[in-house]
Amino acid sequence: MANKANGTALSNDFTQGSIVGKLIKFMIPVLGALVLQAMYGAVDLVVVGQFGTNEGISGVATGSNVINLVTFVITSLTMGVTVLISRYLGERSAERVGKVIGGAICFFAVFAAVLTVLLLLFAPQFAAWLNAPEEAFDVTVTYIRICGAGIVFVIAYNVISGIFRGLGNSRLPLLFVLIACIVNIVGDLVFVAGFHMDVAGAALATVLAQAVSVVLSLVIIRRQPLPFTLSRRDIRFNGEIRTFLQLGIPLAVQECLTNISFLILCAIINNMGLDASSGYGIAQKIVSFVMLVPSSLMQSMSAFVAQNVGAGQEKRARRAMLTGMGIGALIGVFIWALAFFEGGIPSALFTSNPVFIEKSAEYLRGFSPEAVLTCVVFSYIGYFNGHSKPLPVMIQGITASFLVRVPLSYLFSLRPDASLVDIGIAVPLASVYGIVFFTICYLFTTRRMKRDGVLA
After folding, report:
1. Which of 140, 203, 275, 291 fits a disulfide with 146 by CB distance 3.0 to 4.6 angstroms?
2. pLDDT, position 456
3. What band does 416 get if pLDDT is binned at 50, 70 and 90?
4. What is the rounded distance in angstroms from the CA atom of residue 236 to the CA atom of residue 220?
């Protein structure tokens, strides 16, 4: 890759200009890409719900929890690449970017091979750990194995997208995932509605979509002007791997354990029967869309803050975090209202079964405050990620999951008249804890930066 121009870096300079304007401009494509990415599993569930079996709904819902866990870990690891590239651009050290990318290629190639083997061999164990309903057990295993066989394409997409977000370009990742989404929709209709392949067809469509997206993205990248050079000598195991893993591993551990807590939650609900399992699975697909606003905030904030930290502009990084909280909370109020009062409307998009719709709406009522609270939590996460301080993020994620969310969910499920509303409430309660935790960490960090003269 030759250094054709510096347009990418200059046109996405986060160290000057309007914070609101630049943050929103960068965030919208990130949000769009996340929306389309979430549509993978959502489309699978919609098509299986309309043209497949009831067992298929539970199979896709439970199996996608495993795949989502793996995907979130991959995204967290690539966040280290994103932050490192943004920092080097802020420091005007673009010559180091090629080494970061070359090291990432080597590391994630090995990582992809390991994950593929694990998902293929241990799919039955994963389904058993999630207490997949007996009638849906085999299709859950099928979904995990087929998606696991294509996990290399998930990794490739996330690495490519992470690189471009680090460069301040959020438009290309949106284009890549748009291609995948279109292919996935067509594949679902052909394999599930046309060939009646049920869960296997949905999984095949997902893998095919990811493969097409990666191939076309590589073709598109070759035509892009890039603010760095990448030579064959850069593609090796080098010291930059250790640096981005020091940033990414704590985030991946936090994300992994957080999602494991949701898998435990899934297992708790699966014990309540097929109706609750399917209803919760549908609600989780809706929740995946609700979480896109805070997720896009976090990813955008990480790159935005990292570039300003690299340029020594701490006050601007702080203002960006507060701006993100305001933007996210404003959007979250509208999402909360829909989830609390009309949760059955989005639930009906996934199935015509009235019992499943009712169970899904129950969970969404309890969950709904999370639409506002998590925007504050994720803005804090982006701020600490951008400062290359993943430890507070990891500690918060683990403690919120295993000291608040899981214990409360289990206790609420033991009630004689337990409903999914009660279990859903445990999620926003964990975010309340997260806000308190991060506020304390933020105040401590700010005081230390003032003492060291970093923040006047």
Report:
1. 203
2. 62
3. confident
4. 24
The pTM of this model reads 0.76
Dihedral sign computed on CA atoms, order 331, 332, 333, 334: positive
DSSP letters of 252-264? HHHHHHHHHHHHH
Q: Tokens 């609900």 correspond to what residue? A: 269
Q: In angstroms, rounded to a whole number, what is the distance separating the alpha carbons of residues 240 and 246?
A: 10
Q: Are 379 and 301 in contact (CB under 8 A)?
A: yes
Cβ atoms of 294 and 436 closer than 8 Å:
no
Kindly state the tokens that stand for 306. Answer: 């990292």
17 CB-near residues (< 8 Å, 6+ apart): none
CB-based contact 228:168 (threshold 8 Å) = no
Q: Give the pLDDT confidence score for residue 273 in this predicted structure.
A: 82
Q: How many CB atoms lie within 10 A of CB 193?
A: 15
Residue 376 has pLDDT above 90, yes or no: yes
Q: What does the block give as tokens for 133?
A: 């309903």
Question: What is the spatial distance between Cα 284 and Cα 260, in angstroms, rounded to a whole number?
Answer: 14
Question: What integer pLDDT is reported at residue 6 of this predicted model?
Answer: 43
- Helix or strand or coil: residue 265? helix
The residue type found at 34 is L
Per the model's pLDDT, the better-predicted residue between 2 and 97 turns out to be 97
CA atoms of 277 and 137, how far apart (whole Å): 12
Rounded-to-integer distance, Cα 384 and Cα 370, Å: 21
Write out the DSSP string of 32-50.
HHHHHHHHHHHHHHHHHHH
**What's the CA gap between 167 and 150, in Å, rounded?**
27
Position 270, amino acid: N
**Contacts (Cβ under 8 Å, ≥6 apart) of 348:** 357
- Take residue 361 and report the two structure tokens written for it: 């709406």
